[in-house]
């Protein structure tokens, strides 16, 4: 079986030629206008980034190398056990190479990552241990990742002048795989810091998949004696599959979102993958980006304590109207690009719907499901939001909460594990294609004003 790197090596020449030809033949083709509104409005709608792995359609949501979530669920290999979700390792292969891997290919990548990730560098361990236990978990995450830059193969070889530009991608891939592989231990360390005085919550194994290791190190597998969630064996398996589903579909959301764009921008200065992705993590920590899932959990809990029954639609509607009338937003609804329910939400909702017995007594999960019917009606009547449907953050946090992850700030760390795969894949491709340092032109107020006079 060819490794991921060998498979990539076979794909590269044709893709390099195609991009070179596109630039040579159509380099001057105008893609679209850039307006003053977009320049002072977060560059919304400007088609100005090259990004290969994923694309976002307002009606159909995210596509991974052209495949919808539903297609990924059907076609990407999992563990081979019936009912198990596909492995994020499969998604990484798809993003990186552009093709659906075989079971054997995924299994070899699973093994490769498990071996690469079996220990954290001793200095990273030391740094993490020294951090205050109540430090924001995303700050711990970014510090841990940045510290690993000490072992970057790319940075070392670049400094020694050992590699030429066309070969940069090899060390970038090496670092990226090492980084992704390190995430179960890094995440487990952060979770044990905030919940268990830094004492390990579970074991790492070279024989299992990336998500099973994440769950084990969070203390969320049954055989673990310090299990924080007190899960039985079925719940442990379900939680691992929830983790596979969640981390399999949050890998990427085109290039323009903050975490992806930041990783790409910092990487364009030839900063190594550790520095680049730790910057992306800093962006993911923002409340308008990765932190929204915790807002939804707070909202559901608060709403439940303010209504008498989930069955009373009238009461739910009144509660939502009270929020809207006080000029607040309904968290978990609306989107800047999407105009339909987010298919990532639908996938998470289906996870809950397939396990009615597990969730039948969880008022928060039941409310999440009920809101998906009621909130769009209210938002439509309200008439402001361009998208009245549930977004990605509507369901994920409350499902993690159900199984026992109660530290709301930690949700974004799990998001960050998943998000590593898309932006780091693009970083490898940035080096394969030799993309230059990013450097858009900026304009002052006077500069913009002068342009209005010129037209
Ligand atoms: N509840 C109430 N009002 C909403 C709303 C919601 N869920 N979503 C949008 N609106 C309002 C919005 O505030 C704006 O009002 P003003 O004209 O008074 O400023 C109006 O509808 C038009 O907004 P839009 O064009 O439809 O949305 P934007 O592109 O400006 O904003 C969101 C997109 C996601 C920031 C917005 O829908 C929102 O605040 N949603 C609630 C918070 C949330 O769920 N965030 C997570 C988003 C998630 F997908 C992610 O990216 N992680």
Automatic annotation (TrEMBL):
GO cellular component annotations of the record: mitochondrial matrix
Recorded GO MF terms: 2-methylcitrate synthase activity
Give the GO biological process terms.
Answer: carbohydrate metabolic process; tricarboxylic acid cycle
Q: Does the keyword Transmembrane helix apply?
A: no
Q: Major place of localization?
A: mitochondrion
Instruction: Show the InterPro entries listed in the entry.
Output: Citrate_synth-like_lrg_a-sub, Citrate_synth-like_sm_a-sub, Citrate_synthase, Citrate_synthase_AS, Citrate_synthase_sf
Q: Which domain of life does the UniProt lineage start with?
A: Eukaryota
Task: Supply the alphabetized keyword list.
Answer: Mitochondrion, Transferase, Transit peptide
User: Where does it live in the cell?
Assistant: Mitochondrion
Q: Does the keyword Transit peptide apply?
A: yes
Which PANTHER family is this protein grouped with?
CITRATE SYNTHASE, CITRATE SYNTHASE 3, MITOCHONDRIAL
Family that this chain belongs to: Belongs to the citrate synthase family.
Write down what this protein is called.
Answer: Citrate synthase
Q: Where is the organism placed in the taxonomic lineage, from the top?
A: Eukaryota, Fungi, Dikarya, Ascomycota, Saccharomycotina
């Amino acid at each position: 079986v060819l490794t991921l790197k060998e498979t990539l090596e076979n794909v590269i020449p044709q893709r390099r030629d195609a991009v070179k030809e596109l630039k040579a033949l159509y380099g001057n083709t105008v893609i679209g206008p850039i307006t003053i509104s977009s320049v002072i409005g977060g560059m919304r709608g400007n088609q100005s980034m090259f990004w290969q792995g994923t694309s976002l359609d307002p009606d159909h949501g995210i596509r991974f190398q052209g495949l919808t979530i539903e297609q990924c669920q059907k076609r990407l290999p999992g563990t081979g056990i019936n009912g198990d979700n596909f492995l994020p390792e499969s998604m990484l292969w798809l993003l990186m190479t552009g093709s659906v891997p075989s079971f054997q290919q995924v299994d070899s990548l699973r093994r490769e990552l498990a071996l690469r990730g079996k220990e954290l560098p001793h200095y990273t361990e030391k740094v993490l241990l020294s951090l205050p236990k109540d430090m924001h978990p995303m700050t711990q995450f970014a510090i841990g990742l940045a510290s690993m830059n000490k072992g970057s193969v790319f940075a070392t070889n670049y400094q020694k002048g050992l590699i030429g530009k066309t070969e940069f991608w090899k060390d970038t891939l090496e670092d990226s795989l090492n980084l992704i592989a390190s995430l179960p231990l890094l995440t487990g360390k952060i979770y044990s810091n905030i919940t268990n005085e830094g004492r390990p919550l579970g074991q790492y194994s070279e024989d299992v998949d990336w998500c099973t290791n994440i769950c084990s190190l969070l203390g969320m597998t049954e055989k673990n004696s310090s299990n924080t969630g007190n899960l039985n064996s079925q719940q442990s398996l379900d939680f691992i599959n929830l983790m596979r589903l969640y981390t399999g579909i949050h890998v990427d959301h085109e290039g323009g979102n903050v975490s992806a764009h930041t990783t790409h921008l910092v990487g364009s200065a030839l900063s190594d993958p550790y520095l680049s992705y730790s910057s992306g993590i800093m962006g993911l920590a923002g409340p308008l980006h990765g932190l929204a899932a915790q807002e939804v959990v707070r909202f559901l809990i608060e709403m439940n304590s303010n209504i008498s029954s989930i069955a009373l639609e009238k009461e739910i509607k009144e509660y939502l109207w009270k929020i809207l009338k006080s000029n607040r937003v309904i968290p978990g609804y609306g989107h800047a690009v999407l105009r339909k329910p987010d298919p990532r939400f639908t996938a998470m909702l289906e996870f809950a719907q397939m396990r009615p017995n597990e969730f039948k007594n969880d008022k928060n999960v039941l409310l999440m499901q009920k809101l998906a019917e009621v909130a769009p009606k209210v938002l439509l009547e309200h008439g402001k939001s361009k998208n009245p449907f549930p977004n990605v953050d509507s369901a994920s946090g409350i499902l993690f909460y159900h199984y026992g992850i109660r530290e709301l700030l930690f949700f974004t760390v799990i998001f960050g594990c998943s998000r590593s795969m898309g932006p780091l894949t693009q970083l490898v491709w940035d080096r394969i294609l030799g993309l230059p340092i990013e450097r858009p032109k900026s304009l002052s107020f006077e500069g913009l004003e002068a342009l209005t006079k010129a037209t």
